[in-house]
């Protein structure tokens, strides 16, 4: 396959990753990091770009999707866990959120006050949004052309317009670091990058890219791996450039707009300062295009997976089902969606990371399920209570014990137990039959 085609597939992967959350977060980080922006951005890029890139390579290395890796634990676990991940990042939370964020930032600012609080504009918008999603997702073989060649360049242009203007005519000097960023910028940003949840997205989107490669005639495993590495590097480079640009916008905005509560407000006010009345329009285009590409990718990925598990229905049928269900859920509203999704994602995200990392080294222990099982059980014990805590359910006796774990307060308390569980599994593995 030509370098040009590889590059287009890389652009498609970049666009699939770049949802609204990825655009909104860096400006706020820039405001909070201030003169510690350089150190903070390194920490964020490691977890916000590095881990998703590794996840894409894990999918390529496994030669299949998330289920392929998860089935190394147990075939039933492979199906159940993969379905949970797809439903969480798909029709329950991820897909509806693309519509609600688009509406809140790309539409609400242009609505008259008399109707901005009504429910029907959101309902109308979600119908239009998911109609476009369905139209572009119905033929997954054309995702490369539709996203990589059309939507991604537009996305680059609107983000580039903000970034270039902020560099040529900065709003002000870089401000002072705020709160924890003043004393621990690297690790605070490292943790914030972990909370972007892009690792799960990578495990979902990886199979979309593999199928796109197969549609281009790339089927040999070494060729697929090579193309996936190239696409992953292109996507990671694009993400890094966007994060750095938006972080710089936030860091130079404090003198003019003050410290804001969220990245959406930072971007909205900064866009107006940089481009006047046209700034809000540029921001609206950025958010809508970013959310649309992510929505298309998630709908396509979910439809492909469920067609694989339940082939009784066709891919197109699942596209309509997931888009329609997401349109209904989206009308719950952004705030409610986020509050419900956080506990679920805090529970399953660490499990996905452990699965991903172990997939690179599992040949060293013969892919024996006992190693996976003990590592995941130890991870789940901590992540489940993280999820409960995120839902406002504080089981104090357990949390008091878990608080002694390294990095527990940063929501990475599962890391040491996962390593210990894996090591115990390796020690016990000679007692179990090999499974290659």
UniProtKB/TrEMBL annotation:
<feature type="transmembrane region" description="Helical">
    <location>
        <begin position="194"/>
        <end position="213"/>
    </location>
</feature>
<dbReference type="InterPro" id="IPR004685">
    <property type="entry name" value="Brnchd-chn_aa_trnsp_Livcs"/>
</dbReference>
<comment type="function">
    <text>Component of the transport system for branched-chain amino acids.</text>
</comment>
<feature type="transmembrane region" description="Helical">
    <location>
        <begin position="281"/>
        <end position="303"/>
    </location>
</feature>
<keyword id="KW-0812">Transmembrane</keyword>
<feature type="transmembrane region" description="Helical">
    <location>
        <begin position="150"/>
        <end position="168"/>
    </location>
</feature>
<comment type="similarity">
    <text>Belongs to the branched chain amino acid transporter family.</text>
</comment>
<feature type="transmembrane region" description="Helical">
    <location>
        <begin position="7"/>
        <end position="25"/>
    </location>
</feature>
<keyword id="KW-0813">Transport</keyword>
<keyword id="KW-1003">Cell membrane</keyword>
<feature type="transmembrane region" description="Helical">
    <location>
        <begin position="73"/>
        <end position="93"/>
    </location>
</feature>
<feature type="transmembrane region" description="Helical">
    <location>
        <begin position="37"/>
        <end position="61"/>
    </location>
</feature>
<protein>
    <recommendedName>
        <fullName>Branched-chain amino acid transport system carrier protein</fullName>
    </recommendedName>
</protein>
<feature type="transmembrane region" description="Helical">
    <location>
        <begin position="225"/>
        <end position="246"/>
    </location>
</feature>
<feature type="transmembrane region" description="Helical">
    <location>
        <begin position="412"/>
        <end position="432"/>
    </location>
</feature>
<feature type="transmembrane region" description="Helical">
    <location>
        <begin position="340"/>
        <end position="358"/>
    </location>
</feature>
<keyword id="KW-0472">Membrane</keyword>
<feature type="transmembrane region" description="Helical">
    <location>
        <begin position="120"/>
        <end position="138"/>
    </location>
</feature>
<feature type="transmembrane region" description="Helical">
    <location>
        <begin position="370"/>
        <end position="392"/>
    </location>
</feature>
<keyword id="KW-1133">Transmembrane helix</keyword>
<keyword id="KW-0029">Amino-acid transport</keyword>
<feature type="transmembrane region" description="Helical">
    <location>
        <begin position="315"/>
        <end position="334"/>
    </location>
</feature>
<dbReference type="Pfam" id="PF05525">
    <property type="entry name" value="Branch_AA_trans"/>
</dbReference>
């Amino acid at each position: 396959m030509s370098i040009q085609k590889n590059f287009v597939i890389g652009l498609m992967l970049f666009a699939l990753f770049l949802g609204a959350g990825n655009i909104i977060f860096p400006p706020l980080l820039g405001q909070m990091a201030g003169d510690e922006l350089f150190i903070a951005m390194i920490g964020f890029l490691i977890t916000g770009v590095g881990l998703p890139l590794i996840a894409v390579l894990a999918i390529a290395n496994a030669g299949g999707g998330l289920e392929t890796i998860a089935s190394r634990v147990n075939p039933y676990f492979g199906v159940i866990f993969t379905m949970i991940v797809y439903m969480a990042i798909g029709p329950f939370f991820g897909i509806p959120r693309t519509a609600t964020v688009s509406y809140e930032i790309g539409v609400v600012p242009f609505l008259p006050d008399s109707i901005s609080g009504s429910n029907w504009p959101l309902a109308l918008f979600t119908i239009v949004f998911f109609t476009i999603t369905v139209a572009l997702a119905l033929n997954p073989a054309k995702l490369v052309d539709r996203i990589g060649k059309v939507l991604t360049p537009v996305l680059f242009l609107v983000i580039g317009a903000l970034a270039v203007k902020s560099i040529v005519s900065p709003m002000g000097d870089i401000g002072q670091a705020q709160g924890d960023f003043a004393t621990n910028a690297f690790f605070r940003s490292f943790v914030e990058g972990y909370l972007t949840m892009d690792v799960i997205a990578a495990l979902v989107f990886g199979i979309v890219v593999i199928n796109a490669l197969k549609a281009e005639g790339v089927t040999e495993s070494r060729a697929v791996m090579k193309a996936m590495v190239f696409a992953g590097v292109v996507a990671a480079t694009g993400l890094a450039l966007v994060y750095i640009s938006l972080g710089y916008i936030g860091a130079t905005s404090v003198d003019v707009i003050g410290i804001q509560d969220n990245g959406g407000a930072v971007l909205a006010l900064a866009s107006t300062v940089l481009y006047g009345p046209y700034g809000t329009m540029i921001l609206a285009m950025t958010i809508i295009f970013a959310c649309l590409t992510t929505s298309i990718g998630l709908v396509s990925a979910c439809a492909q997976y469920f067609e694989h598990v339940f082939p009784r229905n066709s891919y197109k049928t699942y596209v309509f089902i997931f888009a329609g269900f997401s349109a209904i859920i989206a009308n719950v509203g952004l705030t409610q969606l986020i509050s419900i999704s956080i506990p679920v994602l805090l529970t399953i995200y660490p499990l996905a990371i452990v699965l991903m990392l172990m997939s690179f080294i599992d040949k060293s222990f013969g892919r024996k399920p006992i190693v996976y099982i003990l590592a995941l059980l130890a991870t789940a014990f901590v992540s489940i209570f993280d999820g409960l805590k995120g839902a406002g359910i504080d089981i104090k006796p357990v949390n008091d014990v878990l608080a002694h774990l390294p990095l527990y307060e940063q929501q990475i308390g599962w890391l040491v137990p996962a390593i210990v569980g894996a090591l115990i599994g390796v020690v016990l593995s000679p007692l179990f039959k090999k499974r290659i």
